Amino acid sequence: MQQELTNKLQQLYEDALSTCQQGSPADYIPALAKANAQLFAVSIASQQLTTQLGDSTERFTLQSIVKVISFMVATEARGVEEVMHYVDLEPTGDAFNSMIRLESSKPGKPFNPMINAGAITIASLLHGTTPNEKVDTVLDFLEQLLHKRPSINGEVFLSEFDTAHRNRAIAYHLKANGFIVGDVETALKAYLLLCSIEVTTQDLAKMGLFLATDGEGAPFISPHILKITKALMMTCGMYNASGKVAAFIGIPAKSGVSGGVLACLKDATIEGHHGAIGIGLFSPAIDDVGNSVASMHMLKQLADHYHLSYF
Amino acid sequence: MQQELTNKLQQLYEDALSTCQQGSPADYIPALAKANAQLFAVSIASQQLTTQLGDSTERFTLQSIVKVISFMVATEARGVEEVMHYVDLEPTGDAFNSMIRLESSKPGKPFNPMINAGAITIASLLHGTTPNEKVDTVLDFLEQLLHKRPSINGEVFLSEFDTAHRNRAIAYHLKANGFIVGDVETALKAYLLLCSIEVTTQDLAKMGLFLATDGEGAPFISPHILKITKALMMTCGMYNASGKVAAFIGIPAKSGVSGGVLACLKDATIEGHHGAIGIGLFSPAIDDVGNSVASMHMLKQLADHYHLSYF
Amino acid sequence: MQQELTNKLQQLYEDALSTCQQGSPADYIPALAKANAQLFAVSIASQQLTTQLGDSTERFTLQSIVKVISFMVATEARGVEEVMHYVDLEPTGDAFNSMIRLESSKPGKPFNPMINAGAITIASLLHGTTPNEKVDTVLDFLEQLLHKRPSINGEVFLSEFDTAHRNRAIAYHLKANGFIVGDVETALKAYLLLCSIEVTTQDLAKMGLFLATDGEGAPFISPHILKITKALMMTCGMYNASGKVAAFIGIPAKSGVSGGVLACLKDATIEGHHGAIGIGLFSPAIDDVGNSVASMHMLKQLADHYHLSYF
Amino acid sequence: MQQELTNKLQQLYEDALSTCQQGSPADYIPALAKANAQLFAVSIASQQLTTQLGDSTERFTLQSIVKVISFMVATEARGVEEVMHYVDLEPTGDAFNSMIRLESSKPGKPFNPMINAGAITIASLLHGTTPNEKVDTVLDFLEQLLHKRPSINGEVFLSEFDTAHRNRAIAYHLKANGFIVGDVETALKAYLLLCSIEVTTQDLAKMGLFLATDGEGAPFISPHILKITKALMMTCGMYNASGKVAAFIGIPAKSGVSGGVLACLKDATIEGHHGAIGIGLFSPAIDDVGNSVASMHMLKQLADHYHLSYF
Q: Which amino acids does the record list as binding substrate (chains A, B, C, D) (predicted)?
């Protein structure tokens, strides 16, 4: 059921929209740099209701948000114990593409699956021999969840692949230390394809609801894996503002440099929504640490107004 | 009301007690090294009930657990904005006594108040000119909360003060970068006195309940500061296992090298306890990262059996 | 003219030979691990005389020693100014394969051409489009100098190429920061081919003599480039013992993990040798930092006995 | 014998003088910031002759140049082996006041005596119980060498002592790791007093000549210690330009942030000077890495014109 918009939600949306100009689209990937900085969409999904604000049919690439999905899929496939042999679950305080800790902290195991190092390791752990087979395990999951198979944005993929020097350096560093299973280029290509999966905020809200309910409905992910996933979102999902997001918003969330944000609420009330709630947000203008400015503003206002903090 | 012990809680306690031998008391502070490694106490407090398991009248020093208290007191006194001018709220992945990031990450602001650097900065922000005046603001808070004024263990304080070279190095490094307010030795001495405050698990459980209720009853701390505090416990309260504790236990908690652990539950059921719950644990044998082995084992079993995870 | 062996040189050789067992051949490259740890050769060349001790016709791969040669050839081809746009001339104190400084020290320019990062950058600066063309510029230089064209040890090259994950990580990291000219894989392959060039200690002694004379005879390298090269050998030629080698031996020298050492003396007297002298040493058993144990022992005894220190 | 100035030396001096404006006096120590940026003095001393250019009677504090002297005095007193138990002889590539390596490189031994960490350790190794007793061992050495007892600039000392937070942090970090002998504050005060010893370029030239001759005349320092000292000057004497100074000038030298430079030549000819030569330079305007601009310019021109490079 589509919710009729309340004045309050509409007002919060308008307020957040006006903050777009405080950021700008990611410029290190050419295909992202040309995004319309004025776009802003918010979708809210609970088990009975959905709410759409703004450009909720606009498609964008998942970028780092996919780290949440690929971690769940790989961990369901391999088991927590095996995954943790290759990647830890600790926040770092470092930049998402930092390599220092891979050398300074023996034996060089990536600290968590939300930084690039950990996510490339996770891509190597996805079932399948080729990049496409690996990506298919994630697309299969998303198709079951969204009732449609997401597309991959080929232009964005190629744009990232051509300039993936830093990620390739990370991948070979991981391989040197034994934290890539199988072929390095396969893992790297799979990772970059995964980043290029296209979604809308409506899709993100559904993903958030799936997480919030501990996996009710199809597809199947073990509840303890979903809890680990949400803990990772809370401790290291929002780049180098993760600690402040936990402190001032208090919601498990994951952002991507394309401007998307995925959030989930275990038990909340937002106007007509009650219980488990998923939220998807998107606005391409990002701040210094990589988080969408309008999305963060909206999430903070929602958290304050509807008392959403987990703490 | 004192709870009659259920078979289940007693069984979980016995199971956890048997894990003591997997750790050993902290050895870098002489006065801690001689602790009885077989001690183990658990206290659970809700608004109607208290439960005691084991040596719940045994006194031990707060050590790092005091970082939670001093952060609340300093932030209530100074305001969030002023405190954040001197210390960030981000997890690090570094050792609790690491100095590297003070130099490598400009301008050298400590990343959070749960590492030594941040806690020394917080000590410098406590009201008062002398170390004792600063410590009194924390003791006043604890006296209001516990209805008794905690003592300071002079032997432990002197033992730490004599070997505080690393903490003194941290303090002067912070001063060099402008992140100590006032006199360095005053802040350092205040910090070490705070670490030496003595409590029991019953006291920790009361502190946990205070946090869990967002500050019901005396003393007064603003609810938004309590939420920030609990977020810090979740993202960086358990030394370098904070991420894994969030993933596998999912409860805001803070540990100290003396073997104490403070935890709080927003809304849970543990036998006769319902709603907000505080938990205090103590067992001197700690693991490699500094967390009490039996306490962690107990907390994990409690979380699994009573579904306590925030996620 | 081949020198008749003096008792003194023979005695120093025997003394050094007995130290072989204190090290062991490099084990991270399979093809090197199987070297005969008892081999030890020393060659001394001055403008009038050559002296051979031990297995001076034994061939081994240059490994890091080639960094000296490729730096000279690339710098003669490109000029000092252009080369220094891509690589600095500062010692680091880091491991030869460290990547930390590429990230921590903006803009990520390799600190010197004697560490792997700098040497891969230098390989990218060698004239030529393909790896073989680049390598040929170095082989051309060596052919002019040695009056024979050195071979490349294909087994060692393939062994290193298959396990070059760390070097590949370094190469892509350099590319990400703009310090590789042209194609990354081309530079990397050229670098690994260069490491696999085979020489004898007699060849090393000739190279040392060439450096010692500031480039007398063919081929041509500008004297100021040879001075820079010798300064680099003194400040960072002997892995993480470079400072101690300067302090206790005081001779510009460059070692490789295959067990070779190249040294040069501006103006010295060693038995019948007078003036500029080149020394080549080889013994596969290396110490913790990567220097040949017997070669270092020999060089220290030579320096002490014949007063060879530059200081 | 005082040399009559040649046109060539006078011209090189004038050229160098004109580069003063490219730098500015050190501003982190208030008492240094007010130096006259136009001062420039050069003194050259050989065994038969002295040459003075510019303000060669102007007094300035040794600052980091004293690290050379205190290393010699402490090592003569303690022996090389004992000193190396506390400080290594390796260059670092780090800033002179960096602390990162004290934590990242186990067991935290300072890498060399030319960075602050190593120099504070050396100060702790000087004989004597009080700061003044330790400083007296260095002043005794200088009095024997210079035939007058240098004074200590009390204003500079107090200015540095008041703002010595970073150096104090380094000192306590060293103590925590076992690399300070005795009392920390004693070592730190001794170090800062040593930095405040006042000299002229004439004094520096005499020190350089002493080093150049391997210690001819009084006082006595073992020749092998002098060789180690000169090697340290070559590999790490000129802050983060040490490698480039070795490459482009090629002379063992040590600079201080007050604008002084000490250099020594084993066997050279500069106009009427032949053989061992000492050079003292002073100009308060320093560059980004801490070296006196005019002094560096002069030294480079002298090296080029008189072929002074050791390589």
A: 64, 116, 160, 167, 191, 239, 257
pLDDT of D112 strictly over 70: yes
State the complex-level ipTM. 0.97
Instruction: Name C292's bridge partners.
Output: C286
Neighbours of D274 (CB within 10 A): 14
The residues of A annotated as belonging to the active site are: 64, 67, 191, 239, 257
Is the pLDDT confidence value at D5 over 80? no
Query: Is B146's Cβ below 8 Å from some Cβ in D?
Result: no
For residue D196, name the pLDDT band (cuts at 50, 70, 90): very high
* CA torsion through residues A15, A21, A23, A24, sign: positive
Q: For domain D66-195, which architecture applies?
A: 3-Layer(aba) Sandwich (3.40)
Place of tokens 């006032």: B182
Q: Are B284 and B258 in contact (CB under 8 A)?
A: yes
**Residues contacting residue A194 through CB under 8 Å, at least 6 positions apart:** A62, A66, A69, A70, A123, A135, A138
Distance in Å, alpha carbon of C215 to nearest chain D alpha carbon? 12
CA distance D54 to chain C (A): 29
**In whole angstroms, how far apart are CA B175 and each of B117, B169, B185, B269?**
11, 10, 10, 46
D91 CB near a chain C CB, below 8 Å? yes
For A18, other C-beta atoms within 10 Å of its C-beta total 11
Enumerate the residues of chain A whose CB falls inside 8 A of the CB of residue B208: none
Measured CA to CA, the distance from residue A257 to residue A199 in angstroms comes to: 14
Q: Which residues from chain D sit within 8 angstroms of residue C111, using beta carbons?
A: 93, 243
Percent of chain D with pLDDT over 90: 93
- Tens-digit pLDDT profile for residues C74-110: 999 999 999 999 999 999 999 999 999 999 999 999 9
Q: How far is C165 from chain A (nearest CA, A)?
A: 5
Minimum CA–CA partner of A98 in chain C:
C103
A108 reaches B (C-beta below 8 A): no
Predicted confidence at residue D4, as pLDDT, reads 66
To the nearest whole angstrom, how far is the Cα of B172 from the nearest Cα of chain D? Answer: 5
Q: Is B58 annotated for ligand binding?
A: no
A7-58+200-306 and A64-195: same fold? yes
Q: How far apart are CA A109 and CA A121, in angstroms?
A: 9
Supply the angle between the helices A154-162 and A184-195 in degrees, to the nearest 10: 130
Q: Give B-chain residues touching D165 at CB under 8 angstroms.
A: 172-173, 175-176, 184
User: In whole angstroms, what is the distance from residue D104 CA to residue D131 CA?
Assistant: 30
- Pick the closest to residue C247 from D235, D209, D70 (CA basis): D235
> In 3D, which of C208, C221, C218, C201 has the Cα closest to residue C275?
C208
The answer to whether A266 faces chain B, any CB pair under 8 Å, is yes
Nearest CA in chain C to D212: C311
pLDDT at C30: 81
Report the pLDDT averaged over residues A75-80: 98
CA C73, distance to chain mean position in Å, is 14
**CATH architecture group of domain C7-58+200-306:** 3-Layer(aba) Sandwich (3.40)
The pair of three-digit structure tokens given for residue D296, joined into one six-digit string: 């560096």
Contacts of B170 in chain D (CB under 8 A): 169
On whether the C65-195 domain is CATH 3.40.710.10, my answer is: yes
Structure-token match 């404006």, residue found: D21
Q: C90 touching D, CB under 8 A?
A: yes
CATH of B64-195, one of 1.10.10.10, 3.40.710.10, 3.20.20.80, 2.60.40.2250: 3.40.710.10
Residue A250's H or E segment, with its range, is none
Domain boundaries, chain A: 7-58+200-306, 64-195
Catalytic residues of B: 64, 67, 191, 239, 257
Quick check: D294 pLDDT over 90?
A: yes
- pLDDT score for D3: 65
Residues in A closer than 8 angstroms to C103, CB to CB, are 98-100
